[in-house]
Design goal:
Distance between the termini: 32 Å
Number of strands: 5
Strand order of the largest sheet: 3-1-2-5-4
Structural class: alpha+beta
Number of domains: 1
Strand content: 15-25%
Largest sheet: 5 strands, antiparallel
CATH superfamily: Transcriptional regulator MraZ domain
Length: 135
């Protein structure tokens, strides 16, 4: 996978080209510059390990976290198990999400996006946090 220039520059600046790639419950991959991941990992591991949902999240995200480094051309070599998890075949979609990127199989991304748009049209109420957000 080749990281686009706009993301590559941030990763090089923030972490010298080191990223952590892990799994997400939506069956995509999450890419974090190393310092951002270290903060996420600290938060995840501070959750109560006896709580079943917290433990599942720790197992998924921390358990699958893989340390990778950009090569001189801005490429990342994704391990087969991560590619398989995200159903990455040929084409992928890299979606910027603030301090991280999501890597999706292109077909799966468009299917999920369309589903989210349909769901959003059916929603009539927002949570208090979203209701107060001004975009």
């Amino acid at each position: 996978m080749v990281l686009p220039t706009r993301y590559r520059e941030r990763v090089l600046e923030r972490s010298g080209g080191r990223v952590i790639v892990t799994v997400d419950r939506d069956q995509c991959l999450l890419l974090y510059p190393l310092p951002d991941w270290e903060e996420i990992e600290r938060r995840l591991m501070s959750l109560p390990s006896l709580h079943p949902q917290a433990r599942r999240l720790q197992r998924l995200m921390v358990g699958h976290a893989t340390d990778l480094e950009l090569d001189g051309h801005g490429r990342l070599l994704l391990p087969p198990e991560l590619r398989e998890f995200a159903h990455l075949e040929r084409l992928g979609m890299l979606i910027g999400q603030g301090n991280r990127c999501e890597l999706w199989d292109e077909t799966r991304w468009y299917e999920r996006r369309d589903l989210w748009l349909e769901d959003e049209a059916a929603v009539t109420g927002l949570t208090a946090e979203l209701d107060s957000l001004s975009l």
